[in-house]
Specification:
Order of helices and strands: HH
Number of strands: 0
Shape: rod-shaped
Number of domains: 2
Number of helices: 2
Structural class: mainly alpha
Distance between the termini: 86 Å
């Protein structure tokens, strides 16, 4: 009888526990990888800001090219 209990306990630790741990990890990973609505809004705002800054840099470079032709080669 003791041997049966030992074998069942060993199987529980060797088979069931790792499957449960892996399943728990997968569920947590899926929950973490999704963005909340607030995070999505923040990302959209940051993307808009980055686009506006990129346009400003392009415009500034265009102005400098017209006003100071060799500004890119100066140290």
């Amino acid at each position: 009888m003791e041997f049966v209990v030992f074998v069942l306990g060993f199987l529980a630790l060797a088979v069931v526990a790792p499957i449960a741990i892996i399943g728990h990890t997968i569920v947590r990973w899926r929950a973490i990888r999704t963005l909340s609505a607030e995070e999505e809004r923040t990302m959209a705002d940051l993307l808009g800001t980055a686009d506006r800054l990129r346009e400003r840099v392009i415009n500034l470079e265009r102005i400098l090219d017209a006003e100071v032709p060799g500004w890119r080669t100066e140290p």
